[in-house]
Amino acid sequence: MATRAQPGPLSQAGSAGVAALATVGVASGPGPGRPGPLQDETLGVASVPSQWRAVQGIRGETKSCQTASIATASASAQARNHVDAQVQTEAPVPVSVQPPSQYDIPRLAAFLRRVEAMVIRELNKNWQSHAFDGFEVNWTEQQQMVSCLYTLGYPPAQAQGLHVTSISWNSTGSVVACAYGRLDHGDWSTLKSFVCAWNLDRRDLRPQQPSAVVEVPSAVLCLAFHPTQPSHVAGGLYSGEVLVWDLSRLEDPLLWRTGLTDDTHTDPVSQGIGVGQLQLTEGFALVMQQLPRSTKLKKHPRGETEVGATAVAFSSFDPRLFILGTEGGFPLKCSLAAGEAALTRMPSSVPLRAPAQFTFSPHGGPIYSVSCSPFHRNLFLSAGTDGHVHLYSMLQAPPLTSLQLSLKYLFAVRWSPVRPLVFAAASGKGDVQLFDLQKSSQKPTVLIKQTQDESPVYCLEFNSQQTQLLAAGDAQGTVKVWQLSTEFTEQGPREAEDLDCLAAEVAA
């Protein structure tokens, strides 16, 4: 019909299509096959009265004039038959309704009896299957698990070929700072380095222009913000010094430094925890002869007695307890409350004590990172040059599990601050691996490609305040801030209980 719309285009256009169709119907003028509004200037019928009045005085011509005008007007404008055909549908034809199908009830019942045993057998098999164990129905739209929010860097440091060696978030979670140095080689006495910070809450954030830059005379190997002072950050240098800066003081940010004294570290400072006055109050030394014989250790080379510490992590449950990673590949459980004197001739302004209480089974090479669980007092992770992550219980020497994540070094491992069974690891192959042990204990849930040329990722840190953020630094001098989906920030059902069961099973 002329005014009838096809269902396809109308359903696609929606209400806008309906409005457009209505407008067209009102505005249409006269044309072939449709009547227009009755207006004098357009229809011959409207001219008939004036012609009729003109011929009233001429009796002999009335008939011919009237007939001609009416015939002309009728033919040109009053096509009633044509209009009727356009606007009226034909009389509806009654539709005959077919009667419902008649089923052969006896045959249907016989069929159901024949297949009953087979259906019950298959249902029992499905009921006993574990194919969908742990599966949870999720009607919400799946979101991307990880996305890159920022790619940060300091071009002068990158031009020197410096690596991002350490990352730290400040106490508000809005500022991320990184240390520049080199982990493979370099002369610490001449290599100038940098500490840079970016405030991610600033509207004028420029990824290649840090909001604070501190020049440092030696490579910075580790960095840690003060737990409550958002602008104070401490750095450990390749030279063995420890420095503290106030990043809000742009002209003269240095607050304290240890200086090169007898109390200065004789090796590079590879990890620092906590901030305070830089006056030595307690000292500890690791001596091979004083290590607990909890496990079989390799003989120390060259008859050396001191053991090099490479990583440290404090317990979230006992402020005196901490875990050390060592060059020998074995983790040590240590205590600040240790009273035994260290058997060393190392010069120190305070007595040195032997802190080691328990020795764990070693990795196949030096340990680069350790992390204590924020949800269980006895669990910690370690990662090292053998490409493995070990999950340990403090109650036994062997690891609970050992995961080979890479054929190259693993430089960092961190527990999630909000998910008990989630952790992240940074590899020498340029990726960051996110594990959810509730989903799989063998393979990562997400593998993030940080560097395209597979240059190493040296450090990573979760943001404990803005828990959807994870920062990672690499050998290209770049810091990437990754945004995690709620899958990595919201605890699953019974997740804390599952972690407790994991530790309890091993302890038993």
Blueprint (SSEs and pairs):
Elements: H1 7-13, H2 15-27, H3 48-54, H4 62-76, H5 80-87, H6 105-128, E1 146-153, H7 155-159, E2 163-169, E3 175-181, E4 193-199, E5 212-216, E6 220-225, E7 232-237, E8 242-246, E9 254-257, E10 283-284, E11 309-314, E12 321-326, E13 332-335, E14 352-353, E15 356-359, E16 367-372, E17 379-384, E18 388-393, E19 401-404, E20 410-415, E21 422-427, E22 431-436, E23 446-449, E24 457-462, E25 469-474, E26 478-484, H8 495-507
Parallel strand pairs: 10-14
Antiparallel strand pairs: 1-26, 2-3, 3-4, 4-5, 6-7, 7-8, 8-9, 11-12, 12-13, 13-15, 16-17, 17-18, 18-19, 20-21, 21-22, 22-23, 24-25, 25-26
Helix pairs in contact: 1-2
Report on this model:
- It is a single chain.
- The chain has 508 residues and is an alpha+beta fold.
- It has 8 helices and 26 strands.
- The protein has helices spanning 7-13, 15-27, 48-54, 62-76, 80-87, 105-128, 155-159, 495-507; strands at residues 146-153, 163-169, 175-181, 193-199, 212-216, 220-225, 232-237, 242-246, 254-257, 283-284, 309-314, 321-326, 332-335, 352-353, 356-359, 367-372, 379-384, 388-393, 401-404, 410-415, 422-427, 431-436, 446-449, 457-462, 469-474, 478-484.
- The strands form 7 sheets. The chain has a 4-stranded antiparallel β-sheet with strand order 1-26-25-24. It has a 4-stranded antiparallel β-sheet with strand order 2-3-4-5, with no helix packed on it.
- A hairpin with a 6-residue loop joins β24 and β25 (469-474).
- α1 crosses α2.
- The longest helix is centred in the first third of the chain and has 24 residues, at 105-128.
